Backbone:
């Protein structure tokens, strides 16, 4: 047995040694040396650009793109705020503000500021830490709640929602992506160029966005930008969408089977086409009475399907009466202009607010996460005009220009200027051409495999030596 184990270990070591010789031979080749030299040279350029930006840019908020204008969506839902359109009638006053937003968007900071500065009044209770479906959850969680309840429970639930005004915190996707690279929470990244699932997150993020995908709560997204798009589009879908029955739409493929009984109780009824048209004015659904009856022969199966489709249709129509007004504010406005934002929020729900005595904590708003910063550090970081573009390659910015939701980007002032306005060097522009990206992919893959082989070789050597000793 000892001789077999020794011979087996020796074969493993010999094969690993052969692989290492092959890779190290390639490393000593001229192709590898040239590529490695270019990679190191470009890395130095990137680092030098960071140093130049930090030392030459003045930390003035006057030039900060976020500081030009406060961006708040949803003030038309506030009965106490002056309307741009006086014809829009808000609902009755809300009793609570509930916080929501993606990870690393400032939800804890908003809750802390509201709790300290927006005091309860006759019509307003204290702010709620999170909304009914979770602070970081999708609004479609309501579907799972409402469609499973009977009429009386639904009425109680909708009445409870009528008293709460959700406040979503949105953040610049460029800075948010970099923050998620450090604190991913439950977001799982997948690298399309390496079998190691964490390779992109720890080695490249936020660079090479197009070669990474992610998964969040069992839902897959093409890129992290796609997650930002879908998450912040959802509140608009549920704000108030009137239903119009259309029996002419039977031929459309909505991506799901409306006859499936399990789909009657989950969000898939809405999500496929709502995510495709997040800012549509109307939501069209079928009238089952018009198009179902002629197709059936009144068999048991056909009657069952008719009842299911009718049940689905009635539930959606009853659900359409439940609109979900909301406010959406920017993380950057909360950071640079907290007094103005708090004044609007408190005025909206008739809270007790004193603009001359605003308490803004200096300490980090959360005690979890990696590299959390206090307020002064955040002001220093986001006060730099070019911080949002640091750590990205030119084609990453171009990728985001074409893949971020244009409506959200325009609404909240997160535009990315044309690449022609950036002072990129010739090397920076040419280095990441499609051909060069293929070479970079090979370079990183080989580096990763060599590290893996070294690790296996060292562990095998330790195991073999321990067996021989024993």
Residues:
């Amino acid at each position: 047995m000892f001789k077999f184990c020794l011979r087996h270990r020796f074969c493993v070591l010999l094969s690993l040694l052969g692989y290492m010789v092959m890779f190290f031979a390639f490393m000593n080749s001229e192709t590898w040396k040239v590529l490695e030299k270019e990679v190191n040279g470009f890395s130095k350029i990137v680092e030098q650009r960071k140093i130049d930006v930090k030392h030459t840019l003045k930390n003035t908020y006057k030039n900060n793109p976020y500081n030009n204008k406060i961006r708040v969506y949803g003030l038309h839902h506030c009965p106490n705020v002056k309307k741009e359109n006086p014809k829009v009638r808000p609902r009755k006053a809300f009793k609570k503000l509930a916080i929501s937003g993606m990870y690393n968007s400032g939800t804890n900071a908003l809750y802390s500021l509201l709790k300290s500065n927006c005091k309860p009044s006759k019509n307003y209770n204290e702010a709620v830490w999170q909304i009914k479906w979770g602070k970081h959850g999708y609004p479609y969680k309501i579907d799972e709640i409402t469609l499973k309840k009977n009429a009386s429970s639904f009425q109680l639930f909708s009445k409870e929602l009528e008293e709460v005004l959700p406040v979503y915190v949105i953040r610049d996707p460029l800075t948010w992506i970099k923050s998620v690279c450090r604190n991913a929470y439950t977001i799982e990244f997948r690298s399309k160029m390496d079998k190691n699932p964490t390779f992109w997150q720890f080695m490249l993020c936020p660079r090479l966005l197009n070669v990474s995908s992610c998964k969040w709560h069992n839902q897959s997204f093409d890129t992290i930008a796609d997650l930002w798009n879908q998450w912040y589009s959802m509140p608009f879908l549920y704000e108030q969408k009137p239903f119009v029955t259309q029996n002419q739409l039977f031929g459309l493929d909505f991506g799901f089977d409306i006859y499936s009984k399990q789909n009657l109780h989950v969000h898939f009824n809405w999500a496929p086409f709502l995510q495709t048209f997040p800012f549509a004015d109307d939501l069209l659904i079928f009238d089952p009475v018009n198009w179902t009856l002629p197709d059936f022969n009144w068999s048991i199966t056909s009657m069952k399907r008719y009842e299911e489709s009718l049940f689905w249709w009635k539930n959606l129509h009853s659900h359409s009466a439940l609109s979900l007004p909301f406010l959406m504010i920017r993380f950057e406005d909360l950071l640079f202009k907290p007094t103005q934002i708090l004044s609007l929020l408190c005025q909206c729900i008739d809270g007790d607010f004193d603009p001359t005595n605003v308490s803004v904590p200096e300490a980090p708003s959360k005690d979890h996460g990696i590299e959390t910063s206090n307020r002064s550090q955040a002001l220093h970081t986001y006060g730099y005009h070019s911080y949002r573009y640091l750590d990205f390659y030119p084609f990453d910015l171009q990728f985001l220009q074409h893949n971020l939701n244009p409506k959200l980007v325009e609404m909240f002032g997160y535009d990315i200027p044309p690449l022609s306005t950036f002072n990129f060097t010739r090397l920076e522009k040419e280095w990441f051409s499609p051909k060069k990206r293929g070479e970079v992919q090979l370079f990183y893959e080989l580096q990763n495999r060599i590290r893996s082989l070294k690790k296996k070789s060292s562990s095998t050597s330790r195991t073999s030596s321990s067996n021989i000793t024993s």
About this structure: The chain has two domains: 2-46+433-469, 69-240+323-432. The chain has 18 helices and nine strands. Residues 1-6, 45-62, 143-154, 241-303 have pLDDT under 50 and may be disordered.
